[in-house]
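Bench notes, afternoon.
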Amino acid sequence: MNGLGLDERELCAALRRGDEKAFGELVSQYHAPLRRLALAYVRTAAVADEVVQETWLGVVRGIDRFEGRSSLKTWIFRILTNTAKTRAIREARTVPMSALALDEDDKPAVDPNRFFASHEPWAGHWASPPSRWDELPEEYVSGRETLATLKAAVEKLPPMQQQVIVLRDVEGWEPSEVCELLEISEANQRVLLHRARSKVRYALETRLG
């Protein structure tokens, strides 16, 4: 258990004793984030709920074998990702191997037409810079339709980009945690996040004008 902090060791011990309060606290902390990540793998909310339930069963059944080589959080989320991948295949949403590569799609993250061409004086600089959303009314930026656009844009991302942006920008994970969970390199994580953010930003720009 060398990799665990004191609180986490105590929590693991409580879980092994069958402490319902400890398990309830764990569910309260991680259930919603697990469900959000599950939706990056499977097609429907109903299946995502089933994946999360299977994950909690996996935690209960496997806590005695947890050795603390990673954090408890990473271990729980890895159970989720393994379960979700299995369900995704069952639901005919298999991810091609090419989706795991850096160039999982061949579209540029930002439309090249938004930059000055190589023969122009300001080559490589913005011709059409990103919008200034801080100048828009707050209620417009945070309105229901804008949030719906954001949600839809994330859901349309390729699986790996969706998983990375959910973990980084929704759940607030550190880059190293994302790399450990998804078993990708730091460089891969940065590229996937950049592409995901660029696509989501474009969708919001279209919405916000």
